[in-house]
Amino acid sequence: MFAYWMRALAPAGSLWRHRDYMRLFLASTLATLGATVSQMALPLTAVQLLDASATQMGILAACELLPFALLSLPAGVWVDRSRKKRLAAVFDLLGAAALALVPLAHLLGVLSLPVLYVAGFIVGCTFAVGGTAMQVFITQLVGRERLVEANSKLSAASSIAGIVGPAIAAIAVDALGAPLAITLDACGFLLSACLVMSIRRDDPPVVTEKRPMWPEVREGLQLVWRNPLLRALAVAAAVWIMLFDSFRALYVLFATRELQLGAKDLALINTLGALGALLGAAAAHRMERTQGARVTLILGYLLCGLGYGAYAVMQPGWALTALGAGLAMLVIDFGATMYSVTYISLRQQVTPDAMLGRMTATMRFISVSAAPIGSAAAGRMGDAVGLHGTLLGVAALGCLLALGAARWLPATRPESEIQFELSEQGVMK
Fold first, then answer.
1. Closest CA to 282 of 164, 155, 394
2. CB atoms < 10 A from the CB of 408, how many?
3. Burial code of 240-266, b = ≥16 C-beta within 10 A, e = fewer?
4. CA 307 to each of CA 258, 296, 426: distance values in angstroms, whole numbers, following the listed order
5. What is the pLDDT of residue 230?
6. How far apart are CA 282 and CA 155, in angstroms?
7. Which of 194, 245, 309, 395 sits in a 20 to 30 Å window from 207, CA-based?
8. Contact 172, 385 (CB under 8 A)
9. How many helices (H) and strands (E) in the chain?
10. CA–CA gap between residue 263 and residue 171 (Å, rounded)
């Protein structure tokens, strides 16, 4: 019904009138709606039922990120050789099955941290492979000239789901308990898979000839390494993701143990964060067009660092502790969304179709490989020096990243100029 009214009210030529894009839009919204439940319920399961330490919370976050380091490079070749829509749907189903392990183990009385680690690892595989396929499919579905618009709308959809989701999560956790509430996320993955498969347009694999995998992996690495823009984006993304996921690994533990907040307070924090992401998605498109991608990226880095610091200085017993933490999360997610929309769109715009899968996988491999180590180290530091000190360290490094990027991140250039350079280097097909 929502998709029908958006098509009816939207002007001619709008992506809201693009039937297949709207199905992808709804699939993304439902997947995010389910994910907001797990964002609260999975760490609450570890903290409340299994008495997880900061180190164990870091390991849980690392398990979710490890597949990007292990699978990203071969996944890029697989995506370039496969039908992206089908691959994305299959991995949505795999994610649904993995999440169903948690409530099933709880009902059988065998729930443990290793079960959470396994579920997190499999869900990470879903994003490492299925997420890569979906990013490439979006490019083929809407065209390069509409990528920023398409990614902004998808990010806005995720943000709207994120605003509604925490309230649903709080109700579900109170009514069902944290482990059983994760069932809603599994249902979100399942519905997302059905919607993706209902998209009428299919995409034939770009690569038809059978070639050894590793030479193609090497081509993806060369594509990123030889281009100054892609190389700088990958390095900056590696630092940013390591800091962002270190914060995510500890923010629930910090809220529950240090700030003495409950599920409803976490729902408020996550809702305000989703509102920030919604505002960031709207701002990203406008700022990228008026100020350029470089300024938008640097501002996103800086806002994240400032938000981490604001969250870390919250103290228990303040009258508005939950609201203050939520406003800090709003700033973090505003900056994160501005950064991610611009970053993803920019790297897709400057890459030839035949290399999109390998480029995306290579960028993910470079940028996310350090994140499991960072999350585990942040958890260890949380036990060693305290959560306040660890989060303040993450904040300081986030601000330093923005200052460093202002010096060495190259100015962006027109797509045609960059693709000409890639052709001269012999990496275009």
1. 155
2. 10
3. bbbbbbbbbbbbbbbbbebbebebebb
4. 18, 17, 43
5. 84
6. 9
7. 194
8. no
9. 18, 0
10. 9
Residue type, 334: F
Report phi then psi at 89, rounded to 5. -65, -40
Ordered DSSP codes for 214-272: HHHHHHHHHHHHHSHHHHHHHHHHHHHHHHHHHHHHHHHHIIIIIS---HHHHHHHHHH
Q: CA–CA separation, 50 vs 114, rounded Å?
A: 11
Q: Mark residue 18 as left, alpha or beta (left: phi above 0; alpha: psi -120 to 50; beta: remaining).
A: beta
Contact 100, 92 (CB under 8 A): no
Report CA dihedral (290, 294, 299, 300) to the nearest 10 degrees: 110
Longest dimension (CA), the chain: 65
Query: What is the fold, at CATH topology level, of the domain defined by 18-200+212-424?
Result: Growth Hormone; Chain: A; (1.20.1250)
Tokens, residue 98 = 């993995």
- Asked if 61 and 208 count as a contact pair (C-beta separation under 8 A), the reply is no
What pLDDT is attached to residue 178?
77
Cα–Cα distance, 30 to 11 (Å, whole number): 25
Q: What distance in Å separates the CA atoms of residue 181 and residue 165, rounded to the nearest whole number?
A: 12
Average pLDDT per run of 10 along the chain, which is 429 residues long? Answer: 50 71 83 74 83 85 80 76 84 90 90 90 84 79 74 73 70 79 85 88 62 74 82 84 84 86 83 85 80 85 91 84 91 90 79 75 77 80 84 87 76 44 37
- What is d(CA 329, CA 333) in angstroms, rounded to the nearest whole number? 6
Distance CA 312, CA 247 (A): 10
Instruction: Specify the pLDDT at position 93.
Output: 92
pLDDT of 429: 31
pTM: 0.66
Residue 47, Ramachandran bin (φ over 0: left; ψ between -120 and 50: alpha; else beta):
alpha
Token pair recorded at residue 311: 């969250």
CA dihedral (81, 84, 86, 92) in degrees, to 10, reads 120
Whether 149 contacts 345, CB under 8 Å: no
Question: According to the model, what pLDDT value does residue 207 have?
Answer: 53
